[in-house]
Amino acid sequence: ALPQARGHLEFDDVTFGYGEGKTILPDFRLDIPEGQTVALVGTTGAGKSTLAKLVSRFYDPTRGRVTLDGIDLRDLSQADLRRAVVMVTQEAYLFSGSVADNIALGRPDASYDEIVAAAKAVGAHEFIEQLPDGYDTDVNKRGGRVSAGQRQLVSFARAFLADPSVLILDEATASLDIPSERAIQKALQTLLADRTAIIIAHRLSTVEIADRVLVMEHGRIIEDDAPEAL
Ligand code: ATP
Ligand code: MG
After folding, report:
1. Which of the chain's termini has less CB crowding within 10 Å, N or C?
2. Ligand 1 pocket list (CB less than 6 A)
3. Residue with CA nearest ligand 1 atom 29
4. Euclidean distance between CA atoms 175 and 173, whole angstroms
5. Yes or no: is domain 9-225 CATH 3.40.50.300?
């Protein structure tokens, strides 16, 4: 059991390949102290998303282990893992249902006040209030349509409410208008506070707010530095 994960994440000689295919991560080692924000950059096919998928246990290593606070992820219950690790993907997936339900996805027990507090924390409250039925607006119904930037904010509110010790973010490549970009950046800083984070970063502004930048190539880290050093 894992009462409250602190978020110390370690890849301990992890080797991974998809099925019988070639090895994507060869003897991969990485130690991320609790609370650190890591920006992961590198060319397409380098293995960034694969790394993220090993942390959320979409896949398990072929050899070696990924540990959270020293515990092999495979030894955690699904409930513990879900609480400890949240992944926000590029699609910022919203399902058919109210905005409130979408924010409460990982926390079905959350009260209305907690949902609103999460939305406020990431700066999503203002636009939600403008929707025809506010928090009760069905995001897929007419009038309830939300922009790409707003979808991101809703998924950030969802992650904020879930309050995981480890956050994984596969940053959207789609370009946003400048006000949305600023809103996302501000929300991101709130979301990253007091937790471990791995961000597959596509924006320079994201790299700049990270504590550490890893450059990946062919499943290996070729640079590991503070953002100022790059
Ligand atoms: P991008 O910047 O384009 O998102 P990435 O660094 O996230 O790239 P990955 O998606 O981790 O790269 O892919 C690493 C390698 O694994 C690539 O060669 C890719 O073709 C391969 N790969 C990814 N997913 C699968 C899969 N489900 N089955 C087989 N091979 C895969
Ligand atoms: Mg990827």
Report:
1. N
2. 18, 21, 24, 42, 44-50
3. 18
4. 6
5. yes
